């Protein structure tokens, strides 16, 4: 009997984490492998032929993993009957699909390309059932973006090395979007410098039996003014009035785009945009949420239908009309998936006609389609087939506890936002109470009472009954109220704040710099370069005179108060200031916000086949060369320095700012410099040398010998740690911010003994073990580290995964590791 051959279809994705699920959904005839992202790169400016329409020579990325992956893909493609490209639905994903075709000789015009935005069985099967082909317009847009970024990097970064500093390991760099991102932080710094704060008094009057705080609508600027106001308030008739209830509506939140999600997670959980995207990638690959890189604010019809059912079952009252619980604009939140897909396919067929000879669409139809796709006020050209970020299953309110804590918290926020956005507005009644004060000043108090919670039902964190609201409505109009007390506290107002990462994401989006998928990378890059740091901002501490008027007695008090203190804010560093000021002076035409936004708009036009991709590269490269030539004519080739005195100057060296010292014999040496230098003050000659030189700090102490090696106590970026031979152990959990000089050899030995290092010695390094107790240890295996557990009564050992452990299991405190293993696997 002749057996029929089983057809093998190879599905290529970017991330290996998707493969298992996709294979399980598609069945035995399919195999899924990953490219691990891009396989080819442009490795130098020489690879771009600027005189021949920027034709580019790509090479396989030079690292062992990529080499192995290319060979694996070559082997799998040769064995497959059919190849389906399932890279991500964005410019990079489209380009990766094209590179795979080029690298393995697959026909671009006919190789199947599938798109899905959630890893569910329905989505995967639907995608396989309706494949497309590679959109070369999108590929061209990605290629333009990549070439532009390289042109900026290879052309302008060397100028920074020449005039500011060249370093071997931490080179200064300019970037097409990186530099405008840095400029936003710099502009914030300039605004902060120009707004030191305006002194005034914050005055509150406490009235009624509830002692409600009414805010005065006037800020007195001097001690004498507020003192006079308070003295005259003693005999003043404070007349109360209250408005009639006014209905107000609070709209539900919009669906999450990438940038809005990053902002929400940063604000609520204090997780950086970069880390947020990392966790969202895991949630997406696990099938919990839709694709996390999107500009869309719409949902699929299926999701809206399922969410309406969920709202009906969980929030709508018995006997109530369901419609009153639903967003009245719900229809506008729905993607027009089928219609848009048809239009997109018609457009693609038309622009590819010379190659694949498909059905021709009339010119009028193309124009209409193009107009339709670019008429949005948002203008960012989000694909309508994309959805906002949402859960794949609205019934799943919480994901399993086996997931990381941060992933669970991020998912919960996404779930809440998605359901809230589909629900009705919350309705309130608002009243405004006023008390006429002395000097025509008015004390005001605003109060709201919820009438219909709408979307607020999801979190159920709203005040059902506001006692102040009911109470104020009972008070007689134009009645005279006696104050309980009136306070006047000194404050500084109009102080500009440094930006959070969430605020920078918002501004990048508003100014059209980069795309949602690149925001987190840009924020990370300017910090990685040392241009910006996320740090605590020390405020200004000053003596304040406050007043309290109570029982007709005015009491004056003095207190020390700090203004402008901030935590986890983006602060531009001296290196960043010197770099951005240089680039603004000599390359402003390229790095101003409007030009950067126009570049992004042009990339969108290329993706829509409205512009030739290489013309954008020609224009930008020409501008760079013109500005660079002009700079060479204007400026000598010498490093930029700030002169302190005849022998000392401030400059950027290999590892950042230093003081350059030149003695009488012209011998140069360097001194460390403090990090909180005000460059403007330095330029004005406002510092003495001793005020800015950093005294040397001890960062490495030899404690003694341990297992035949020198035992060093060190201070690093994340606190204290100890090293011996090739081993290291974090001590930040044990000693916190304790000065390095105050840690003893015996204390460190005690910790190493407790954590299982003392008895294992150097054999630990070879076997990869960390002893947790007599029955449990961590071992190194073929596929990574794992937990090994075997008691004396057990015939065979048990093996457990370390996935989900929230800390570094190699250096964390043993008790933390023990507790986690016990809780997760119920073993002692």
From TrEMBL:
First-tier enzyme category under EC: isomerase
Isomerase keyword on record: yes
Gene3D superfamilies membership: 3.40.50.140, Topoisomerase I, domain 2, Topoisomerase I, domain 3, Topoisomerase I, domain 4
Annotated InterPro entries: Topo_IA (IPR000380), Topo_IA_2 (IPR003601), Topo_IA_AS (IPR023406), Topo_IA_cen (IPR013497), Topo_IA_cen_sub1 (IPR013824), Topo_IA_cen_sub2 (IPR013825), Topo_IA_cen_sub3 (IPR013826), Topo_IA_core_domain (IPR023405)
Catalytic activity: ATP-independent breakage of single-stranded DNA, followed by passage and rejoining
Segments forming domain Toprim: 8-119
Gene Ontology molecular function terms on file: DNA binding; DNA topoisomerase type I (single strand cut, ATP-independent) activity
Enzyme Commission code: 5.6.2.1
This protein's record includes keyword Cytoplasm: no
Key words, A-Z: DNA-binding, Isomerase, Topoisomerase
GO biological process: DNA topological change
Annotated Topo IA-type catalytic domain residues: 135-628
Family of this protein: Belongs to the type IA topoisomerase family.
Name of the featured protein: DNA topoisomerase
Source species: viral metagenome
């Amino acid at each position: 009997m002749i057996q029929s051959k089983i057809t093998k279809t190879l599905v290529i994705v970017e991330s290996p984490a998707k493969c298992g699920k996709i294979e399980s959904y598609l069945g035995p005839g399919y195999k899924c492998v990953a490219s691990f992202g891009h396989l080819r790169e442009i490795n130098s400016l020489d690879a771009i032929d600027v005189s021949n329409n920027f034709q580019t020579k790509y090479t396989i990325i030079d690292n062992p993993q990529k080499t192995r992956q290319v060979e694996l893909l070559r082997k799998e493609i040769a064995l497959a009957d059919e190849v389906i490209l399932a890279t991500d639905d964005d410019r990079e994903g489209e380009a990766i699909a094209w590179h795979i075709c080029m690298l393995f000789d697959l026909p671009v015009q006919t190789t199947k390309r599938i798109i899905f935005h959630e890893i569910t069985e329905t989505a995967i099967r639907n995608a396989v059932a309706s494949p497309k082909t590679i959109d070369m317009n999108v590929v061209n847009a990605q290629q333009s973006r990549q070439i532009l970024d390289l042109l900026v990097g290879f052309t302008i970064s060397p100028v920074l090395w020449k005039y500011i500093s060249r370093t071997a390991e931490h080179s200064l760099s300019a970037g097409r979007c990186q530099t405008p991102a840095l400029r936003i932080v710099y502009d914030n710094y300039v605004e902060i410098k120009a707004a030191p704060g305006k002194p005034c008094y914050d005055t509150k009057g406490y009235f009624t039996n509830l002692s409600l705080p009414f805010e005065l609508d006037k800020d007195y600027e001097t001690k004498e003014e507020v003192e006079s106001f308070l003295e005259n308030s003693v005999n003043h008739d404070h007349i109360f009035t209250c408005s009639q209830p006014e209905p107000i509506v609070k709209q539900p939140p919009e669906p999450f785009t990438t940038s809005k999600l990053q902002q929400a997670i940063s604000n609520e959980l204090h997780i950086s945009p970069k880390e947020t995207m990392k966790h969202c990638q895991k949630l997406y690959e696990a099938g919990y949420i839709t694709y996390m890189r999107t500009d869309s604010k719409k949902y699929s019809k299926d999701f809206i239908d399922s969410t309406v059912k969920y709202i009906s079952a969980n929030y709508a009252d018995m006997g109530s009309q369901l419609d009153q619980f639903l967003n009245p604009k719900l229809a506008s939140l729905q993607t027009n998936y089928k219609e848009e897909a048809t239009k997109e396919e018609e457009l693609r067929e038309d622009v590819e006609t010379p190659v694949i000879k498909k059905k021709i669409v009339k010119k009028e139809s193309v124009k209409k389609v193009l107009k339709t796709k670019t008429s949005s006020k948002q203008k960012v050209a989000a694909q309508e087939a994309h959805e906002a970020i949402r859960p794949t299953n609205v019934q799943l309110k919480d994901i399993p506890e086996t997931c990381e804590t941060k992933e669970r918290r991020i998912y919960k926020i996404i779930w809440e936002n998605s359901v809230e956005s589909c629900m009705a507005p919350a309705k309130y009644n608002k009243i405004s109470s006023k008390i006429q004060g002395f000097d025509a000043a008015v004390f005001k108090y605003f109060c709201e009472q919820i009438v219909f919670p709408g979307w607020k039902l999801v979190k159920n964190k709203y005040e059902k009954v506001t006692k102040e609201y009911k109470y104020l409505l009972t008070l007689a109009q134009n009645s005279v109220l006696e104050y309980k007390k009136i306070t006047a506290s000194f404050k500084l107002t109009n102080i500009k704040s440094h930006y959070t990462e969430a605020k920078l994401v918002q501004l990048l989006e508003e100014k059209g710099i980069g795309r949602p998928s690149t925001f987190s990378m840009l924020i990370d890059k300017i910090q990685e370069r040392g241009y910006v740091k996320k740090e605590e901002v020390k405020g200004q501490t000053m003596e304040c005179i406050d007043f309290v008027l109570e029982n007709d007695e005015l009491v004056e008090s003095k207190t020390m108060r700090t203004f402008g203190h901030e935590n986890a804010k983006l602060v531009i560093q001296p290196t960043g200031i010197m770099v951005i000021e240089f680039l603004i002076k000599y390359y402003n035409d390229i790095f101003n916000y409007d030009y950067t936004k126009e570049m992004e708009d042009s990339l969108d036009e290329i993706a829509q086949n409205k512009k030739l991709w290489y013309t954008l590269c020609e224009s930008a490269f020409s501008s760079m060369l013109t500005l660079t030539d002009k700079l060479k004519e204007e400026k000598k080739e010498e490093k930029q320095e700030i002169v302190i005195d005849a022998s000392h100057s401030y400059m950027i060296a290999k590892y950042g700012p230093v003081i350059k010292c030149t003695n009488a014999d012209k011998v140069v040496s360097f001194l460390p410099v403090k990090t909180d230098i005000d460059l403007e003050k330095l330029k004005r000659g406002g510092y003495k040398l001793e005020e800015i030189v950093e005294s040397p700090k001890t960062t490495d102490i030899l404690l003694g010998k341990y297992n035949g090696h020198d035992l060093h106590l060190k201070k690093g970026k994340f606190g204290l740690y100890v090293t011996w031979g090739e081993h290291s152990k974090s001590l930040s959990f044990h000693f916190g911010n304790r000065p390095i000089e105050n840690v003893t050899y015996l204390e460190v030995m005690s910790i190493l003994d407790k954590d299982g290092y003392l008895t294992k010695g150097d054999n630990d390094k070879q076997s990869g073990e960390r002893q947790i107790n007599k029955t449990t240890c961590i071992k190194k295996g073929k596929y990574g580290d794992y937990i090994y557990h075997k008691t004396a009564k057990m015939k065979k050992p048990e093996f457990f995964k370390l996935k989900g452990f929230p800390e570094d299991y190699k250096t964390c405190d043993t008790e933390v590791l023990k507790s986690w293993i016990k809780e997760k696997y119920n073993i002692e």
